[in-house]
Design brief:
Blueprint lengths: L18 H8 L13 E8 L4 E7 L2 E9 L8 H14 L13 E4 L5 E7 L3 E2 H5 L7 H19 L13 E3 L5 E3 L10 E2 L4 H6 L17 E2 L3 H9 L4 H10 L25 H15 L9 H8 L4 H7 L5 H10 L10 H7 L7 H12 L9 H10 L1 H8 L5 H12 L6 H15 L5 H10 L14 H28 L10 H6 L13 H6 L6 H12 L5 H15 L4 H13 L7 H16 L11 H9 L9 H34 L3 H15 L1
Parallel strand pairs: 9-10
Antiparallel strand pairs: 1-2, 2-3, 3-5, 4-5, 6-7, 7-8
Helix pairs in contact: 4-8, 4-12, 6-9, 8-11, 14-22, 14-23, 18-19, 22-23, 22-24, 23-25, 24-25, 25-27
InterPro entries: 2AA_helical (IPR055231), ARM-like (IPR011989), ARM-type_fold (IPR016024), HEAT_type_2 (IPR021133), Kinase-like_dom_sf (IPR011009), Prot_kinase_dom (IPR000719), Ser/Thr_kinase_AS (IPR008271), Vps15-like (IPR045162)
GO cellular component, one term: late endosome
Pfam families: Pkinase, VPS15-like_hel
Length: 684
């Protein structure tokens, strides 16, 4: 498959270039032992020369299917099938390879004239994400580059090489976790340099809209250097060349070896780690260069002969010096000088990648894919559980008050799904019981001993005992809260010590605890940190939570962690997600949302002119129904927040007026150029 496929179709064959033909071929796709894999055509994603890409629906969800049309009935695909089976066996474990998604299905059609590759579908790839608002921040770009290197480590450590790394093959989730997909072991390793037909057939973008080329230079071979530079030095455009190549069947490729670096690669050789490193360097360079291609095919061929001008001019535009240095090293022409992915990650820790990327953040975010966070409610619970370490590792702040508050939320079961809450309510109740009820707890523990079927075992008195224990716990908690409220109303500095649970929690935390002492300074000029990465996870999970308590915890986490973010993140990333839950069906969620918005906008100090009308055009219209809300708690929350909202709105108006005045009096670039020209003429 690929190496054996003909580049030109027979004269009597029909090119697969329409959605209707894809539907017809999909009828031949039958996956044995997978009754849920009944593919239904949904959309045509790519009409490439080599593979056709379609989006399909099945009982397991939305999937992407790549269709290979056989033009030679005698062509055998057993080698490709074996390679893909080996790849799936090595990379299918999410625990060991959390950044890799291999093809899960490779099947031949029932008529044996087409092959089908099936993998999970994603909403966006890296190319789409780079050009989608809100644009990626610098720390997010570094996080994606870090994950790319980790993905290469996961593959290369198992002896697997990708072969076609580019922006379109890097999938990005809504919380900026990346997956390396569409492995290409069936594509040719080496390509003739004097005949680009193979490159355009196998590696060119299906819609020909992008001219990016990230194939390693050592993968091209040819008979001499004159043939190498024929396309590079020609004046024909890449678009015209592609049109000619699509109309004209290419001659059989030459197998003559290349003289580059005193090596003689053959067309049937194997992929290497250095080839993937070069391609990854291209992707990272494009990531930090606004998605613009680093190479096209003519530029890459010139670079292979030693012309470094075009590449160096692009790398000089990357403002981050260490990133430019790392990419320059990854793009070395001599593949033997390139390092491994692990070496690049370790060498550029501190200069590019913060230490917490590897020591904490990567392992924490990987939990979302494995045991802890498959559901949005469970993801909120994960952030709640690790709140103290998140703030300490990513921001360098020891937020003891927030840690106490979210530990209390965790013990109460808030932020988790109902099943988890039900499974653990007894254990939490036993752990939180104070000493006056120790005897009742011991009786219940003996009831839950092994051999009796757990807490709901065969003991006939189990349910009455459970009810009495729960009533005792509820009465104890009610009395404790009553004493805390009475102590607070008297102005006492701390509530009286009533139980072991109160000693652990300290003072009862407020629904929205204030930021730590150093948050004001950080709001003015926050240091670079990765808190935006965790906030992306929270925001993407908030809209899909099923339990109202999870939404409440998520809003409180956003408000608390948002104090450590910069103003652009608060306005562009956090506010839109919180605004979505203003019309939630649960009154407590609506009240928490208005409080969260108030806390976020009140600490904004730097307001860009583009966001000057955020209050009159965005926030205030969304709050017009709060004064007449049917729930009294929502009206009370709105009344509490209204003074601070009014003050913040006035401050935003003053800032926007000052920015407009400055823009009016600031000379434009044209006026500045005219003044410079006039001064120059006067001197002459």
């Amino acid at each position: 498959m690929g190496n054996a496929a003909p580049r030109a179709q027979p004269a009597n064959s029909t090119q697969l270039d329409t959605a209707s033909q894809c539907r017809t071929l999909l009828m031949e796709c039958v996956v044995p032992h997978r009754n849920t894999m009944n593919l239904v055509f949904s959309n045509l994603l790519g009409d490439g020369k080599f593979l056709k890409t379609v989006q399909c629906k099945c009982e397991e969800g939305v999937v992407v299917v790549k269709i290979y049309r056989k033009h030679d009935t005698h062509e055998s695909l057993e080698s490709a099938k074996h390679q893909l089976a080996t790849l799936y066996a090595a990379l299918s474990s999410v625990e060991s390879t959390p950044n890799v998604i291999p093809y899960s299905v490779f099947e031949m059609g029932t008529k044996a004239n087409a092959a089908f590759l099936v993998r999970q579908s994603f909403v966006a790839n890296l190319y789409d994400r780079i050009y989608t608002r809100p644009f990626l921040t610098d720390i997010e770009k570094k996080w994606i580059a870090f994950q790319l290197l980790k993905a290469l480590e996961q593959c290369h450590s198992k002896g697997i090489f990708h072969g076609d790394i580019k922006q379109e093959n890097v999938m990005v989730t809504s919380w900026n976790w990346i997956f390396l997909t569409d492995f290409a072991p069936f594509k040719p390793t080496y390509i003739p340099e004097d005949d680009p037909a193979d490159y355009y057939y196998y590696f060119c973008a299906s819609d020909a809209s992008r001219r990016s080329c990230s194939v390693a230079p050592e993968r091209f071979y040819g008979s001499n250097r004159d043939a190498l530079s024929r396309l590079a030095d020609s004046e024909i455009s890449a678009e015209e060349w592609d049109k000619q190549m699509s109309r004209t069947p290419p001659p059989p490729p030459s197998l003559a070896p290349s003289s580059s670096y005193n090596a003689t690669p053959q067309k049937g050789g194997s992929l290497t780690a250095a080839m993937d490193i070069f391609s990854t360097g291209c992707v990272i360079a494009e990531l930090f260069h606004g998605g613009k291609p680093l190479f096209d095919l003519p530029t890459l061929l010139r670079y292979r002969t030693g012309d470094m001008h075009a590449v160096m001019s692009v790398l000089q535009k990357i403002q981050d010096g260490p990133v430019s240095d790392m990419v320059r090293h990854m793009l070395q022409r001599d593949h033997r000088s390139r390092l491994s992915a692990a070496q690049y990650r370790q060498q550029y820790t501190d200069s590019i990648f913060p230490p917490y990327f590897d020591s904490f953040l990567f392992r924490f975010m990987a939990l979302v894919l494995t045991r802890g966070g498959k559901l949005p409610d469970a993801r909120i619970r994960l952030v709640c559980k690790y709140y103290a370490r998140i703030v300490r590792e990513l921001v360098g702040v020891d937020d003891r008050e927030g840690e106490v508050f979210f530990n209390h939320r965790l013990k109460e079961g808030h932020g988790s799904d109902r099943a988890h809450f039900t499974d653990n309510v007894l254990q939490r109740m036993y752990d939180e019981m104070s000493s006056p009820y120790e005897e009742a707890r011991d009786n219940d523990e003996s009831m839950a001993s092994p051999g009796k079927g757990g807490p709901f075992g065969r003991d006939a008195h189990a349910i009455p005992k459970l009810q009495s224990t729960y009533q005792a716990y509820a009465k104890h908690k009610h009395d404790t809260l009553k004493r805390v409220k009475s102590a607070t109303s008297r102005g006492d500095s701390a509530p009286p010590r009533t139980s072991d649970m109160d000693q652990d929690l300290g003072e009862k935390p407020s629904p929205l605890p204030p930021p730590p002492a150093g948050a004001a300074n950080q709001t003015t000029k926050p240091p670079p940190n990765g808190i935006m990465i965790v906030l992306s996870l929270l925001c993407s999970s908030l809209r899909h939570c099923q339990v109202p308590q999870s939404k409440l915890t998520g809003l409180q986490l956003i408000s608390r962690l948002g104090a450590h973010a910069d103003d652009e993140v608060r306005l562009q990333r956090l506010i839109p997600y919180v605004m979505e839950v203003l019309d939630d069906a649960n009154a407590a969620v609506r009240a928490a949302a208005i409080r969260c918005i108030t806390s976020l906008v009140s600490v904004v100090t730097v307001l860009p002119l583009s966001d000057a009308a955020v209050f009159p055009q965005y926030i205030l219209p969304a709050l017009q129904n709060f004064p007449v809300d049917v729930e009294e708690s929502v009206r009370i929350a709105f009344a509490e927040c209204l003074p601070l909202l009014a003050e913040t709105s006035r401050r935003f108006l003053e800032i926007s007026c000052a920015l407009k005045q400055r823009a009016l009096h600031q000379p434009s670039a044209t006026d500045t150029a005219r003044g410079f020209a006039t001064t120059k003429k006067a001197k002459e």
